[in-house]
Amino acid sequence: MQVLIDNFDLILAGFVKTLWLLLFAGLIALVLGTVLVAMRVSPVAIMRLTGTAYVNLVRNTPLLLILFIFSFGLPDVGFAYEVNNYFNFFFIAATTGLGLYTAAFVCEALRSGINSIPVGQAEAARAIGMPFAQSMRAVILPQAFRAVVPPLTSTYIALAKNTSVALAIGVTEAAFIMKKLNNNYATARWPIFFGFALGYMIIVWGIAALGALAERRGALQR
Questions:
Q1: Residue 101 per-residue DSSP state
Q2: 207: closest CA among 140, 143, 165, 151?
Q3: pLDDT tens digits, one per residue of 10-37
Q4: For the chain, which domains are there?
Q5: Fewer CB atoms < 10 Å away: N or C end of the chain?
Q6: In 3D, which of 169, 132, 160 has the Cα closest to residue 41?
Q7: How far is CA 131 from CA 107, 127, 134, 164, in A?
Q8: Closest residue by Cα to residue 18 from 169, 171, 154
Q9: Reported pTM
Q10: Where are the alpha helices (DSSP H) in 116-168?
């Protein structure tokens, strides 16, 4: 346990970066996933085909390959951007890749919620003159979000664990720090493993608690 105490600042910094990855990628996934689900249920055929193609392509592509494309492929075509040394290009690449990957799963979770809403809801919205975009925003999506809190929670728990893949492109998040400590303290691997596992469990418990709270509030609003 001494290795964890001695390197607590380094470990904390790793988990803070993990949380930043989770926050930014989660926002990208939520926004893009909402747009994608609107495309997938759109009456316009080309939008449905585009949304479906995106989801099928991304869900069947390994996350690591997506991160490699964003971190090593984009610079080859002249695209490289960073905010500062902390939010550098590889952090942005990891955030973007994680967000675009998770968006496909958010989309499918929301689509299951939309499918659970009675068809009469959409028909009533059309009957009073609401266009598709307005009916989605005011009638369908609010109900769909309340219906899919548990699967969305599971999706974000998976995202929290998927942030560990960012170590492959050099982002100094929690898994990267764990690997570094394992290399420097080979005789203390079990305490390191258990310590970092506990850190990830705390993050997962936090997401689960927020999901349970959102589910209770959604149930009260029905």
A1: H
A2: 151
A3: 999 999 999 999 999 999 999 999 999 9
A4: 19-172 (1.10.3720.10)
A5: C
A6: 132
A7: 21, 10, 5, 42
A8: 171
A9: 0.89
A10: 119-127, 132-135, 141-147, 149-162
